Amino acid sequence: MLSFILRRLLTVTPVALGVSIVCFSLVHLAEGDPLSSILPVDATQETIDAMRIAYGYDKPLPVQYALWLWKVLHGDLGTSIATGRPVLSEVGRAVVNSLILASVATLIGFTFGCLFGFVAGYFRDSVLDRAASAISVFGVSVPHYWLGMVLVIVFSAQLGWLPSTGAGPDGSGNWKPDLEHLRYIILPAITMSVIPMGVIARTVRALVGDILSQDFVGALRAKGLSEFGVFKHVVKNAAPTALAIMGLQLGYLLGGSILIETVFAWPGTGFLLNAAIFQRDLPLLQGAILVLAMFFVALNLIVDVVQTALDPRIERG
Amino acid sequence: MSTPIASSPLSPRDRGGPGQPLLTVEGLVKHFPVKKGIGGKKAVVRAVDGVDFDIKKGETLGVVGESGCGKSSTARLIMGLTQHDKGEMLFDGERIGSRALPLREFRAQAQMVFQDSYSSLNPRMTIEGSIAFGPRVHGVPKRQAIERARSLLARVGLEPARFAARYPHELSGGQRQRVNIARALALEPRLVVLDEAVSALDKSVEAQVLNLLMDLKQEFDLTYLFISHDLNVVRFICDRVAVMYLGQVVEIGPADTVLADPAHPYTKALLSSMPSMDPDNRTTVAPLAGDPPNPIDPPPGCRFNPRCSLVEDVCRSQVPPLAPVDPVHRVACLARQPGSGHSAAPALSVAA
Amino acid sequence: MALGTSPASSAIDIAGGAPPLTSTPDAFVASRGFWGNVLAKLLRDPVAMTAACLILAIVAIALLSPWITPMDPYRGSMVRRLKPVGDATYILGSDELGRDMLSRLMLGGRLSLFIGVTPVILAFLLGSSIGILAGYVGGWLNTVLMRTVDVFFAFPSVLLAIALSGALGAGVFNSIVSLTCVFTPQIARVAESVTTQIRSRDYVDAARLSGASTLTILRAQVLGNVLGPIFVYSTSLISVSMILASGLSFLGLGVKPPEPEWGLMLNTLRTAIYVNPMVAALPGLAIFIVSISFNLFSDGLRSAMEVKS
Description:
The complex is a heterotrimer.
Chain A: H1 2-29, H2 45-55, H3 61-73, H4 87-122, H5 127-141, H6 144-158, H7 179-212, H8 215-222, H9 227-256, H10 258-264, H11 269-278, H12 282-310
Chain B: E1 23-36, E2 41-55, E3 60-64, H1 71-78, E4 86-91, E5 94-95, H2 103-109, E6 110-113, H3 127-137, H4 142-155, H5 160-163, H6 173-185, E7 191-195, H7 203-220, E8 223-227, H8 231-237, E9 240-245, E10 248-254, H9 255-260, H10 265-272, E11 323-326, E12 329-331
Parallel strand pairs in B: 3-8, 3-9, 6-7, 7-8
Antiparallel strand pairs in B: 1-2, 1-4, 4-5, 9-10, 10-12, 11-12
Chain C: H1 26-43, H2 46-68, H3 101-137, H4 139-153, H5 157-168, H6 172-199, H7 202-209, H8 214-251, H9 262-268, H10 277-305
Helix pairs in contact in C: 1-10, 2-3, 2-10, 3-4, 3-6, 3-8, 3-10, 4-6, 5-6, 6-8, 7-8, 8-9, 8-10, 9-10
């Protein structure tokens, strides 16, 4: 097992390096000079040159990359142009908020996804199955930012039950686990949960159907095992894959929350990215993307290792 | 059949005369690298590890052995589908891949029929399209190629009007294998390698296809390399038999001799593990015990020694050469080698 | 021995025990070929057909919109802002600048479909070329190409799309470029795995034995068998691509105003959710209908293409 983890780490390293190269290139993809957004319009050529040297943009790209990577490895993601604060602390605060939202959403999505998936898989081709399938198709087809708007229209604008934007009553940037803050997380979390719900329901349906059609289930039934006993076996066999998908979905949500966070003005990474893009705050954009992508890579690795540990059928060789 | 397919007389292609073997394989070696452990320590599977044999013109040579003994790998090496590491292959006296006989030219004279009849036909091609593909590649005009395909279909027993435009999934396994045979014949080969070509078929269909193969051999003057794990089938169709064990030939000789009076303990074990229809003909020799050893790490000395009933100390240190027991029959067993040090070995003076 | 029982004269033995012609006219089945069968199955799938008809209708309306919109989609009116759905003049209401929603939705479909479908087409061309090449050639080329693909897989697609268009800046062209970058690796991975699978089939070996060149084998034996699965996978991406493309516009990273585009319209109408929620939700509904239609059609296509042997 240890050698398996080490080998996986070995294969992840080049991917992580590649990710860092992509993030580094982002700044250079931008039109014109990376400095153009911070320089005054009437800057003299001398000022520009001085700034280029100060920021290291005069060096060849590979050298710039090496210097940048060195700093990143020491926890220095640069300084935000808009706020002047270190990028790492800005991203850090936002990631916590995003993680809270994404986790709640994943949990909701996982619960309902499994429920629908199990029902559909157990009662294949019944009305229940078709209903559950319809819900999962809805989940993967609906533009989630629109769903958020619809929920706001119904539950905030029309019914006035729940707040429409923000993470808390005081307009503060941080979510706290109390009853008042809970009301703020309901709508964005439900909106977000629809994405993993559809995917998980589909997978679980296929898994359950597959397991039920296998010979060992017939043998269990023939042995006189109760339907609940059979159900336990099905859960045990479906769990590793379902959990793995849940883990991956958490990563997707964390990285893909920008649209939903924008709709609900949730003070997370999506909101931060949005601000970074429109203020042309490229260091902040770069830092946020790097952190999120690395988080996703790490999550993938963890899911892979945990799934291998749980499921004896996966070869560790 | 009305249209003779092998219309060209064989003489211009036959270079060395009837005495020269059609195919000679010498010291053929193929090791597949596999990674083991965390550091990626290199290990090799010795799939084919020094194989020698030859096939005479017009004969059927059977190759038998357990699965994983290197039969199919040998076939793929001969056809150049896999690159060999060491060894030489001569086709009618010319080295395959040399300037005198480039691989492409060799392949026009040697074709192969695979085991899996479904996987060996393109599911998006009609069967006449599949058969005509080879001739089309070699520049035969489309209409002529299709015509040839249809006459071949008729020859292998599939009525062209009904079958030519069908797709593989619309045919039964036996019918598909007939198509594969027709495809192999489309380029007018001299050698046909049949890699477990009938193994996947039902017994009754298998018998029909075997009869077809025997007829085709006569009609088109073919030479067969017939790979199988079924000794009954081999006895039925083959003139000579080579027995393979862990990437090496352990016994080779006329089918009647090898299968009736085997010289190698492995061949004996193989034969005794075969069910017999005759209750008086009970198994007397112990059938094979255990699995074949790992081809990554074969045992020292004779590779069969861990499973052999005649094993002695000398078998664990000395590698037995493939040596003749009579002029046409060769075996790699120390117990049959004069002066080998094995207690059952014949006396030295007997050696001719 | 069993073989002895087989008929001695094998010339009589025809067709390996082929069943006699049954009532199904199999000559007809055979002549239809693979795609003919797929089409026939699709035509019998009511869900997929409904989805296909919806897509065709929306595409047709979008293409014809410059000529058939009931009103000028660009002309606003300050006094007639945010009319509700069902208004006498504005059937689907009017937007925050008093422009006719129906006309804008019709014309908006053109851009939405364009920025949603184009990236998938481009990614299909690029991704299948990369994947087929990597899968067929194998070796170090496969390693280099597929490791690069892995790097892009390390980004959730929404994040990658936003990172790229965020860095490139707003605009239709940039949004298409970044979405193409998002989908190309996904298609390449599918293409690679399908090609690797097909390459190991015996009929590819048989084609090599017939002396055909690599290019001929690719064209005649491999392409026809790999493009189908890749195509089906690509159609399943259109739905995601539509949502993402409109999402980029929704964020202000795609189409620029005053061009009508569903995602952008959704964004500018956000302020209207308290005044006229029905109108505000309409553009999103349009995206949803197109997206779900593509998903259902793609599902139908996939099951129609499953060859049962």
